[in-house]
Amino acid sequence: MVSPNSPVTGEASPATPPAPVSHTLLPDVVIRLAGNSQDGIQSIGGFLARLAGRSEQEVMTFMTIPSTISGGPSIFQVRMGSGEILSAGDQADFLVAFYQHSYDAHINSLRAGGVLIYDSDHVTPNPDDKRFTHVGLAITSATIEAAGGTSKDKGKNIFVLGLIARIFDLNLDKLRKLIQERIGGKGDDAARAALMAFDAGYAHPVENLLGHLYRLTQGGPQQQDRPTVTTDGNTALTYGLLAAGVRYGAAYPITPWSSIMEVLRTELTRYGGLFIQAEDEIAAISHALGFAYGGHLAVTGSSGPGLSLKMEALGWAGMAELPLIVINVQRGGPSTGMPTNVEQSDLLQAIYGSHGDNPRVVLSPKNVEDCFYIALEAGRIALEYRTPVIILSDQAIATRIEAFEEPDLAKHMVTVKPDLTPRPADFKPYPFDGISRHAPPGTKMLSGKYPTVTGLEHDELGHPTGSPVLHAKMNAKRREKIKKLAASLPAPELYGDPEGDTLVVGWGCTYGPIREAVMRLRSGDAPMKLAHLHLRHLSPLPPGLAETFRRYRHIAVAEINDEGIYGYGQLAMLLRAACANPAIRSICKTDGLTYKIGEIIAGIKKISAGS
Amino acid sequence: MSNESSPTATVPAPVNLPLNKKALTADHPTWCPGCGDFAILNVYYRVLEKLQIPHENIVTFAGIGCSSRMPYFVNSHGGHYIHGRALPFAAAISLGRPDVKVFAFGGDGDGFSIGGNHLTHAARKNTNMTYVIMDNSVYGLTKKQTSPTSPVGFKSKTDPTGALDRPINPMRILLNSGATFVARSHAAQIAHMTDMLERAARHNGFAVVEILSECVEFFEGAFDGAVPRKGGKFETIELKKNDGTPEDALRHDPTDEVAAFKLAGLDWPGKFGVFYQHQRPTKNELEAGLVARAREKTKNASDLALMQGTFAKMR
After folding, report:
1. Among partner residues B89, B90, B314, which is closest to A230 by beta-carbon distance?
2. What is A229-270 written as a DSSP string?
3. What whole-number distance in Å separates Cα of residue B211 and Cα of residue A348?
4. Is B305 in the A-facing interface, judged by CB distances under 8 Å?
5. Distance from C-alpha of A257 to C-alpha of A330, rounded to nearest angstrom
6. CA-based angle B105:B108:B109, to the nearest 5?
7. Are B307 and A441 a contacting pair at CB < 8 A?
8. Under DSSP, is residue A586 helix (H, G, I), strand (E, B) or coil?
9. Residues A398 and A345 in one domain
10. Tell me, what's the pLDDT at A68?
11. What pLDDT was estimated at residue A69?
């Protein structure tokens, strides 16, 4: 990027299309917007992400929000491009700084040679810092001038959107349509003001300061049957639940889970269902189990501390063998910890929390798109194996926006209704030689004997028993059904070399950074023999892992949690126990942020060097 | 009966017989001889006989405690959940399956201690169900610890020198929380209990009956003060007949919340009967209204059409 390396302040000019200037082609670009949470920088990010989705470009976003109630520094990072976008990018190519504190906190996230766009009304950059192209614009005053009236600097996010549209030669018609769609709902005046701010930003001859403009290379022809949709992980998960046949649920608000329950509370009424806001986490799972007992597919959800509160009831669900989907959108723990940051430290609580021997199912989506499909799978498993299924999402997947092919809804939609067929005289609710299938209330029992679901150890008919023999037999029954599920799971996809130096294993939101790290290390001057295996089924684990692991000298398990007392992250510890393979090592961190590709690369190199 | 011999008729058509005690009896109760809970079980059978709800539509649910063993002794759909949480579970059965009739049973520990929060919220939400609190003023299943309704001075294993904490006033809590049917009875009074439980079962909304049920093992004589043959007084609440007579002015108006609070404040053993009854929309009705309005807005679109509409907006 060639341009004068000195701060220049520009003035807004009348709306004119950019003069013909050269466009530098970029395969992808990372833009970080840094301001305060009330400035609407999330919505610029949202517009860009959606535009990228509609322009058949790949997109991924990353955001932080303050855990304060209102205001506070916030960033939104968007990476758009024509290739496969797997992560939100380690370093920004463009940084937009609205305030001095935005500049101070984020200037080092800009790569050397990158472009700093700053609001000269609020920011004075270090004039001696020659690493970046400095583009100073009076964003606040230009916005006030453009929008006029009493709206103050509201709309400066849209001004910046116009500026970005000019810099990257983005599709104006699509962006204007998006602004109409998104802001039009707030009234015509709001939409008009927004479009005026947008036009003012777009009209600004920023190329005079940058030296030239950019254009993203067009992606190849789309290899997909359906249009691209753009959304965040919590939304994808919500609609995955609806597609899976979930019509009932209950929860208590907690960040970052809450947006799922907010949508379900309203959406379920449209589908003829019901979602209850419960008085606490325990009541929430109890409501959900009551719905499940009634013959419905039900959901409850929370974030880390809330899952802990649900543990006794989860134990009951395992014992009574009722289907249930439990979502945990993980955040930094323990306790209130870092409620708006990402962490993957609830794995062992999800698998082993609660009391007694209580095998259950734990799944984890690898990205936003997968949130939809993991919900479908959770529903299928819960119903088929009559077990609670926990979905471990996380703050990063929950809040970031991705573009993906719209699911084939007609194919995936599931209908779940209570099965009230009269049960034959020999019906047993808890058979030794099969998976328990409850008769919901309202079902006639032809034996005349009505069943009891129970948390007490019981015989095949559900009668309480203190028999140690029966307890062992029933424990085995509950264990074997989960093992049966394990045997039915597909082997996880292996990307890269089928054998070699290091296999990098991950779960959840580490998917993108691991894949990009492995891609980079397998190419270049000294390619390494590497592979990436991403687990979506965490309990039970899919079959064949021990054999796969033996084909590599090192197994590096990358996860966002602490290395613990024994030096291994939670998945690494589990894999060491399951596979008894001393080559399994950990890459761990708990800085509240998703992995950078560089961090994974450093971890792989350290482990493969045997240190 | 014509297809009795047909080879395809493997599942005979279910026959509905009048529901009687025999059909409703399941496992033999495991309570101690002399326990007040036996009488409550028998009253439950009797009320179910009176109501004649289809057998498969009766649900008997409970939490944990001696009283909460109830579902095993009643031949109906039902279950035995975790301590204190039977109410949210049972409320969801009622909300998710409005075609069934939900009864929940529990003790004073379940209802007023570990599950106290749920009692408050179940009452304010007015979910349509019947809740019977079998209050023995002691933790019996765990062998004599202080309960939230144990009187001050009660000697238990956790208060060997006598309980210090002021006991809960169940009627006041229930009135405060917004329960729409609140009654109190005594396990030694079969006819009164039957009347109270039947009224509760016929009430549309969250109906609660607190029944004093003596634990002969760990708190013998706890409720003798309300047993006439042991020198106590069993005073019932006479309900207004609205007959214009001067006596009627003295009778209790169950819709009068202030009068109900006054009754709840009487010295122990107080009075027995319906303290309060009031009709307000149940959660079942309110939620059904939300669904009806939402469905109308969608013009009864199919689930698939709704979902396709949502994804179209994400493009």
Report:
1. B314
2. EEEEHHHHHHHHHHHHT--EEEE---TTTHHHHHHHHHHHHH
3. 44
4. no
5. 8
6. 105
7. no
8. strand
9. yes
10. 58
11. 60
The verdict on A468 and A403 lying in the same domain is: no
Q: Looking at the structure, do residues A333 and A247 belong to the same domain, yes or no? A: yes
Please give the residue range of the domain that contains residue A267.
Answer: 230-412
- How many residues would you count in chain B? 315
Cα distance between residue B156 and residue B102, in whole Å: 34
* Residue A155: CATH number of its domain: 3.40.920.10
B15 to chain A, closest Cα gap in Å: 9
Judgement on whether residues A131 and A151 belong to the same structural domain of the protein: yes
Average pLDDT on B254-267 reads: 97
A294, closest residue in chain B (CA to CA) = B93
Domain tally, chain A:
4
**A312 in contact with chain B, both atoms CB, cutoff 8 A:** yes
Partners of residue A284 in chain B, C-beta under 8 Å: 88
Tell me, yes or no, whether A405 and A459 share the same domain. no
CA distance A407 to A228: 9
Residues 6+ apart with CB under 8 A from B183: B196, B199, B200, B207, B208, B209, B210, B273, B274, B275
Closest to A439 in 3D by CA, of B284, B100, B82: B100
Residue A107's pLDDT is 95
Enter the pTM of the model: 0.92
* Domain stop point among A433, A468, A488: A488
- Across the interface, which of B81, B92, B290 has its CB nearest the CB of A269? B290
Asked whether the bond before A334 is cis by omega within 30 degrees of 0, the reply is yes
ipTM field:
0.95
- Under 8 Å CB-to-CB from B255, ≥6 apart: which residues? B276, B277, B278
Task: Let me know if residue A223 belongs to a domain.
Answer: no
Place of tokens 């004997």: A449
CA angle, residues A406, A248, A340, in degrees to nearest 5 = 65
Has residue A573 been placed in a domain? yes
Q: What CA–CA distance (Å, rounded) separates A350 from B79?
A: 25
Is A422 in Cβ contact with B11 (below 8 Å)? yes
Q: How far is B79 from chain A (nearest CA, A)?
A: 4
Is residue A225 in a domain?
no
Residues of A in contact with B26 (CB under 8 A): 449-450
Whether the Cβ atoms of residue B224 and residue B231 lie closer than 8 Å to each other: yes
Q: Do A453 and B121 touch (CB under 8 A)?
A: no
Q: Which residues of B touch A316 (CB under 8 A)?
A: 81-82
Q: Which residues of chain A have pLDDT under 50?
A: 1-15
Q: Residue B309: its chain A contacts at CB < 8 A? A: none
Whether A404 has its CB under 8 Å from any CB of chain B: the answer is: no
Inter-chain residue contact A441 with B315, CB threshold 8 Å:
no
B161–chain A nearest CA distance, Å: 33
Q: Which helix (H) or strand (E) holds A500?
A: strand A500-507
CATH at residue A597: 3.40.50.920
pLDDT, residue A67, reads: 59
Cα gap A528→A583, rounded to integer Å: 17
Q: Which domains does chain B have, with CATH numbers?
A: 21-280 (3.40.50.970)
Q: Measuring CA to CA, which residue among B172, B178, B166 is closest to residue B264?
A: B172
Residues with Cβ < 8 Å from B224, sequence gap 6 or more? B230, B231, B232
CATH number of the domain enclosing A335: 3.40.50.970
Co-location of A250 and A364 in the same domain: yes
3-state SS assignment for residue B212: strand
Domain boundary (A488, A519, A534) is at A488
**Statement to judge: residues A382 and A437 lie in one domain:** no
Asked if A205 and A277 sit in the same domain, the reply is: no
Listed by number, the residues of chain B in 83-112 with a beta carbon closer than 8 Å to a beta carbon of chain A are 85, 87-93, 95-97, 99-100
Please tell me which residue, A25 or B174, carries the higher pLDDT value. Answer: B174
The pLDDT, as a whole number, for residue A503 is: 98
Assigned domain for A519 exists: yes
Would you say A489 and A542 are in contact if contact means Cβ atoms under 8 Å apart?
yes
